[in-house]
Amino acid sequence: MGDVLELAGVSVRRGTKTILDRVDWSVNEGERWVVLGPNGAGKTTVIQMVAGRLHPTSGTVTIIGEQLGKVDVNELRPLVGLASAALDQRLPMGERVLDVVVTASYGITGRWREQYESLDTDRAQALLDVFGVGHLAERAYGTLSSGERKRVQIARALMPDPEVLLLDEPAAGLDLGGREELMAALAELAGDNRAPVIVMVTHHVEEIPPGFTHALLLREGVVEAAGPIDDVLTPQNLSRAFGLELEVERHRDRFSARAAGAGARAGAHVS
Ligand SMILES: Nc1ncnc2c1ncn2[C@@H]1O[C@H](COP(=O)(O)OP(=O)(O)OP(=O)(O)O)[C@@H](O)[C@H]1O
């Protein structure tokens, strides 16, 4: 049984649509997971569930030993840091970047009249520094580039010192330089044994930072493969999940994938 996250026979249905179909998945201490799959596979639904923001239609979700539905989610949420596009839309654009991060210690977006201790503001500043955006602490959040915002969101997600860090497509929309800088920061985090368990959603194997240990491959709400990253990210598994024949390569600690065979499709990405 996963000691950090456990999904057992989890299904999510909306009307006649089955979004997740009897998903089993275990995550243990120290693991760094990537969740991969084509559009509509159910990746965000899984992330929303392990963030305690969505309940399964059937099956059980256990988050750090507490079963969803039997625990106050407000107690659970500080234990799970989430960075996602949906959160970005809720953050006040005029808010000072330092406050965007520090308000996470209260689980709120938007500073009101709370008093923060210097311990909190020092931690927020240190996290911004780790992600290379410390110099932007006094700027309004809405003036940041999308790459800078992604890094602020991750600093915010780490602020309450969570047991689990969930990243829903952190590299989406970044240019090559922005993506590589983010990957370097995430690789450093992945290699830090004091860092929380990490679960990151992506469409592209090229966006998996070095140091990630496990992969969950989804297709149409079903687990195609799950386990150690080298066992899961095989050409066979990825081809099945994405519905086209793919070649997968590993150069040192990075993956790449493209349509099998030369010609018109060579170089295509996997989403
Ligand atoms: N409330 C809902 N009612 C009906 N269908 C829904 C609902 N919410 C999600 N879905 C569907 O469930 C499927 C899985 O959605 P989800 O966002 O989890 O996929 P995803 O793998 O994250 O996709 P993407 O890569 O496109 O972000 C999609 O087909 C989506 O349209």
From TrEMBL:
<dbReference type="InterPro" id="IPR003439">
    <property type="entry name" value="ABC_transporter-like_ATP-bd"/>
</dbReference>
<dbReference type="InterPro" id="IPR017871">
    <property type="entry name" value="ABC_transporter-like_CS"/>
</dbReference>
<dbReference type="InterPro" id="IPR027417">
    <property type="entry name" value="P-loop_NTPase"/>
</dbReference>
<keyword id="KW-0067">ATP-binding</keyword>
<keyword id="KW-0547">Nucleotide-binding</keyword>
<dbReference type="InterPro" id="IPR003593">
    <property type="entry name" value="AAA+_ATPase"/>
</dbReference>
<feature type="domain" description="ABC transporter">
    <location>
        <begin position="5"/>
        <end position="245"/>
    </location>
</feature>
<dbReference type="GO" id="GO:0016887">
    <property type="term" value="F:ATP hydrolysis activity"/>
</dbReference>
<dbReference type="GO" id="GO:0005524">
    <property type="term" value="F:ATP binding"/>
</dbReference>
<protein>
    <submittedName>
        <fullName>ATP-binding cassette domain-containing protein</fullName>
    </submittedName>
</protein>
<dbReference type="Pfam" id="PF00005">
    <property type="entry name" value="ABC_tran"/>
</dbReference>
